[in-house]
């Protein structure tokens, strides 16, 4: 039904304005479609890479969190630090389960070649000795803690193609 035009003399010849078709946000030309498809593929690949990297390195954050929960006031801190490092080492390679002492430190150095070697650090050796015998005087907690967190952050190992 067509509406009745207004009765006013000035408005009687007014006609309804036609509304134009909506403009599509999707590109109409093939070139822009290819560009948008390439950008979408690139963004998807970057998200995939970041997700794989996060998945392969999630154990690092868990180890750093576990190390952060160990406090200087705890009399068993050397033993607890060893437990966290052993869990990381066994995660990296199940053959590391039997390592202890200087063998453990050498294997840790094999994973983190760009840092100061742990096997040559006397405080680190003292820390391991204190983990075995709680009657020994422990080294500086902050130094050992810092070295272990640094090792967890920087060691390199190939897990499913990522490091």
Question: In brief, what are we looking at here?
Answer:
The chain is mainly α. It contains 5 helices and no strands. The C terminus is likely disordered.
Describe the structure.
Residues 159-163 have low confidence and may be disordered. 56% of the residues lie in helices and 0% in strands. The chain is elongated, with a radius of gyration of 33 Å. It has a domain at 58-154. The protein has helices spanning 30-69, 77-92, 102-111, 122-132, 141-154. Helix 1 (30-69) packs antiparallel against helix 2 (77-92), helix 1 packs antiparallel against helix 5 (141-154) and helix 2 runs parallel beside helix 5. With 163 residues, it is an all-alpha fold.
Which terms summarize this structure?
about 160 residues, mainly alpha, disordered C terminus
What oligomeric state is this? Answer: single chain
Shape: elongated
Described by strand count, sense and barrel closure, the largest sheet is: none
Q: Report, as a whole number of angstroms, the end-to-end distance.
A: 72 Å
Tally the helices.
5
- Rg, please? 33 Å
- Roughly how much helix do the residues carry, as a percent range? 55-70%
What is the count of β-strands? 0
Question: What is the residue-mean pLDDT, rounded to a whole number?
Answer: 86
Q: Unreliable stretches, pLDDT < 50, 5 or more residues?
A: 159-163
The SSE string, one letter per element, is HHHHH
Q: What fraction strand?
A: under 5%
**Structure classification:** mainly alpha
Helix/strand layout:
Elements: H1 30-69, H2 77-92, H3 102-111, H4 122-132, H5 141-154
